[in-house]
Amino acid sequence: MARKPQTPDFSRRQIISAGAAASLALPLGSALAQQAEGQPLLGNPALPELPGERMRWAIVGLGTFAVGQVIPGFADARQSRMTSFVSGNPDKARMLGARYGVSRFYDYDNYDSIADDPEIDCVYIVLPVGLHAEYTIRALEAGKHVLCEKPMASTSAECEAMLAAARANSRTLGVAYRVHFEPNNMNVLQRVNNGDLGAMRFVSADHGFNANPDWPPHKWRLEKALAGGGSMYDIGIYGLNTSLMMLPDDTPEAVSAHYSTPANDPRFTEVEGGLDWRVRMASGITVQGSSSYCWSPYVSRQRYFGSEASVEMNPATTYYDNRIVFEGSGEPPRAYTAGNPITQFAAQLDGFSAAARAGEQHRTPGEMGLRDIRLIEAMYRSADAGGALVAL
């Protein structure tokens, strides 16, 4: 049998020493020239746009969510940059402006003058729901593209007026359903579309938290004029919208619902504290969910059941920590994460910037926001009628 040639057994020190000796043997200029030699560009890398070429954004409303999530999202954006703040608190606006390099400021009295500002392409409405329609329409009439926080508005009539303003001014209108840009939910959507779960059979969604009326970010949510509705508008809409995202080829046909507000709870004199709901889809499957302002701890859970496998996300729609458990094909449950949830904010901003620049429909357009408000209105009608089935 032929013997395999032996590889010389050089030590790490011998290799380093040999390299050092070789470099000393070269003229000094030759060694430096060799080190400075450039390399060709390989492939076609996707380079970030220069700051001056990014779409320019005004943030309207500097509350907890805007300051804690939306504004930091611009740090990782590649097609979007902040240029303006609109706030009723000039000191807060200027303090944040100094921190983030924003130098253009508006208040709610001179808001319409953004029409004359060439440094604003897009407006992000981060106000309480009751103000969405007014400030969205005014921004559209000022010639700006608008991304509006969810839910889109207080009523379907307001949503329709917002869409009409977008059409009349040839502007892009989107609703900030950030979950459509969250990597873990996108992973589950890909699994659904690939058939990893088989045919979809059932979806459930539970979302809620314990509302604190003494905390300003919760207080306005308990006032119908500002909130539009109760827990279903604010937290339950995540479950509804995300469930329908996973059923792209299906259509809601009817809904039913029951209020689950605790009796005599003083927090809920204007809006519902909880809602248990069902949506019957054209395919015959059911989407079932619940929303609540009375749960502790915070709950954000989505479950998808197919003919071959199932997925549970718990948490499902949070800012920082979404997790997936996949079970099927006779294998034990497998837990994993598919990406950092915090990237959803930059991805949503850049997705809207790209759509607005191209004159295309955003991934989560105003029409989607209108659909969801119509569904919730139908749920309220059902609950008011003791859970009667309401056809859509």
Residue stretches low in confidence (pLDDT < 50, at least 5 long) are 1-34
- Give the biggest beta sheet: 9 strands, mixed
Arithmetic mean pLDDT: 91
Q: Please report which band the strand proportion falls in: under 5%, 5-15%, 15-25%, 25-35%, 35-45% or over 45%.
A: 15-25%
Explain this structure.
- With 392 residues, the chain is α/β, with parallel strands linked by helices.
- The protein folds into 2 domains: 52-179, NAD(P)-binding Rossmann-like Domain (Rossmann fold); 181-340 and 366-391, Dihydrodipicolinate Reductase, domain 2 (2-Layer Sandwich).
- The protein has 12 helices and 15 strands.
- It has helices at 12-25, 28-35, 64-73, 90-100, 132-141, 156-168, 183-194, 216-219, 224-227, 231-245, 343-358, 366-384; strands at residues 55-60, 80-86, 104-106, 122-125, 145-149, 173-176, 200-210, 252-259, 274-281, 286-292, 294-306, 309-313, 324-328, 334-336, 390-391.
- The strands form 2 sheets. Strands 14-13-12-11-7-10-9-8-15 form a 9-stranded mixed β-sheet. Strands 3-2-1-4-5-6 form a 6-stranded parallel β-sheet, sandwiched between helices.
- Helix 5 runs parallel beside helix 6 and helix 6 runs antiparallel to helix 12.
- Mean pLDDT is 91; it is low at 1-34.
- GO terms for molecular function: nucleotide binding; oxidoreductase activity.
- Belongs to the Gfo/Idh/MocA family.
- This is Gfo/Idh/MocA family oxidoreductase.
- Keywords: Oxidoreductase, Signal.
